[in-house]
Amino acid sequence: MRSPFSESLSWAPTVALSWLWGLGFFYAIHVVLAHGWVGFAAFAGPNALGLFLFGWVLGDRRRDPAAILRKAEGAYAGLFLLAQLFAVAITVFALFRHVGQPLFGDRAAAGIVGLVLVAATLGHAVSLRHLRWIHAGLLAVGIGAGLSAWSGLGAVPPAAPTPWWVADERFFGLVVPSLVGFLLGPWTDLQHWQRAVEIRRGGGSVRLAYGVGAVLFLGLLTLNALIASAAGPAGAVTTADGLAGFQPAVAAAVLRGGLDQAGTAFALWAVIAAVSTIDSAYAALRWSMTSVTARSTSVLLTFVPPSLVASPLWILVGAGGLAAAVAAADLSMVYLMLPFATLLAGAAACLVLEVLGVKRAYDPVLCALLGATAALLAVAGYVTPNAALLTIAALVPLVGALPMLAEFFGMSAPAPAAAAAEPEPVATVIRVVNDNNAGAEGFEGRDFVIRLTPTYDDTNSVGNVYFANYVRWVGKARELFFNHCVPGFDIASTEFYILTKSFQHDFRREAREFEPLTVRIRVKHSNRKFVTLEHEIHSATQGLLGRGEQSLMFVDTRTYRPLDIPRSIVEGFLPYAPAGAPPARWRDEAAVPLQPPQPLAS
Hints:
Layout lengths: L3 H6 L2 H7 L3 H37 L6 H8 L4 H28 L3 H18 L2 H27 L14 H5 L1 H10 L5 H12 L4 H26 L5 E2 L5 E2 L3 H9 L2 H36 L10 H4 L3 H16 L5 H4 L7 H11 L8 H20 L3 H9 L6 H7 L32 E4 L2 E6 L14 H19 L10 E12 L9 E10 L3 E10 L3 E14 L10 H7 L29
Antiparallel strand pairs: 1-2, 3-4, 4-6, 5-8, 6-7, 7-8
Helix pairs in contact: 2-11, 3-9, 3-11, 5-6, 5-12, 5-13, 5-15, 6-13, 7-11, 7-13, 9-19, 10-13, 11-12, 12-13, 18-19
Keywords: Hydrolase, Membrane, Transmembrane, Transmembrane helix
GO molecular function: hydrolase activity
Protein name: YbgC/YbaW family acyl-CoA thioester hydrolase
């Protein structure tokens, strides 16, 4: 059995390699040639620091990464999915535009599609705990290939030496976006959430794994900067926006010097970085989305197979389409990078504050609007260039996190005192569908209403209405409600039974004989397994007599296995479901005690 120390260290290679997707791998090449070694340090430092801080915060033994993610992944599902979409898109785009296309031409596109399929297969077939060992082996090969490329490129002096520092408007404008994007970036990455959960589950230290992984990651960025320095800036290309990009400089140096061996080594290193991103992105998406879908209360999952919704292939296809669109438009990689410092930054800041213990005040629509505004400002500031616009663009999305920031720093206003609950009215005016018909029944809004009159037959030996009759009247209302909604239900041919999982009634007053009564029943909420109905019994003279609720479940008529709510029930009752009301939380069907199969009146 491995010690916690060795268990922790075994995760460091995959931590470092999985964060080296296109943004880090190729931007390290660009930034050292465009802004010199100081510019590289300004990029690499926050990048590695953000990775370290992610592990340091989640590595606190008082925090459980699995519990935190389980609580947050529903609210922040859009953030996580978009982050993976952009991460894979950057990787695919950069591999094609900066290695595949320059070295192998447009036919490289087919090879990259095949590479994505291989990586997805690997992520599907191999668990993350085993994938880390594959990544460790790939990293060793990748470092060897990178060193070989550096050595081969070093044999031919570059056209110009690498500058120490090129301080221009764009450099200063990117300081704040780099801090925002790189410090918040790991929190948006499901790959690292999954790693933190697995490290803790295996008894390792998240802090140690991410501390060593961050140092190793910084070394990998430095290796690519050295490769770029050996290649020189002569391979810059100008994109449709008129901006120069140095990402293809290594491929250009290979072609210029006829360095086939160095080119092959660099291509291998880039492929390893891409595969280790895509396979773990697939694994993390499948892991998270399966969990989210399983706990989802959406009735849409009655119609769409959950496995289809949870499939990572949708994100991979979307990322491929986004990468192809950016490539076809001849745009720079920076347009795929900016969302991490703009569009996603507000939600990411709210998530971090929530992890730190701040009560959730996340408004996804507000954060999205602020992020979109910031993205437009960032594009304008980068193209111009304008340092002030770039700086403002990185701060605008953080406005969405201001309420939580205020609470974190103890500056939030005290919560207003709760208003006193209004006393329940003694009498309630009820409009029945047909006042002249003692057996009247029908809908009034969402409520199904029946009217009845108790007689001496309904009383007990003492003279008051027997308590069981209230339950019987609610049952009658439920059956009539069901018959109105699903008139074609036939107990002899049905494929499902409807069982009463629970029933609760709160008695307020007693009914008297010959006192007109009204029973109201409505759908309170539902999820994929259960429907909860609530009811009220009113007297024409006394007002509310009692109220309660019941929960219904559905089982197969042959195996009595619990079922999702059948489609006919969803379609029949959906028009009477509460508009905009939050559904009930998912209940574990394994914890539901099954009753003997009975018809609806059970």
